[in-house]
Amino acid sequence: MADANDVYRLASALPHVVEIDSDGFDFRVGGKGFVWSYPERRPGKPRVIRTDIAVLYVGDEAEKQALLLGEPERFFTTPAYDGLPLVMLWLNKVDNARLEELITDAWHMRAPAEFVGDLDAKIAPPGTDPG
To answer: Considering the domain 4-115, what is its CATH architecture?
Structure first.
């Protein structure tokens, strides 16, 4: 089971990541958000930053639908995110390995091309060619 501390640890370990000051977590690469706390909005009430839910960039509508339909116990969306390549993830319903995969994928989709090699070099086993 993952939590906000795991998001922080995994996202901040990626190259060129900037953490934006917020009431929860908010990580960007190349000026683009890739994972942040869900800002829950309820009619007539102030928004609440939910650190038990991560918003993840997924790239496109097909990937979004695949996650929503394939793992409905973990992923959801709201009308505010209709048409956007974003999903919400219940952190307590995912293990750290899966969370790392999701955060790394989100980073890859948002990072400028010149940054991608830096991640590949960081995760390549010693003595191998990352690219």
So the answer is: Alpha-Beta Complex (3.90)
The number of beta carbons lying within 10 Å of the beta carbon of residue 24 is 19
For the chain, the structural domain boundaries read 4-115
| pLDDT tens series, the chain, 131 aa | 999 999 999 999 999 999 999 999 999 999 999 999 999 988 899 999 999 999 999 989 999 999 999 999 999 999 989 999 999 999 999 999 999 999 999 999 999 988 877 776 555 454 555 44
- Report which DSSP code applies to 93: G
Query: Long-range contact list for 74-83, CB < 8 A, 24+ apart?
Result: 80/41, 81/55
CB under 8 Å to 119, separation ≥6 — which residues?
14, 15, 104, 107, 108, 111
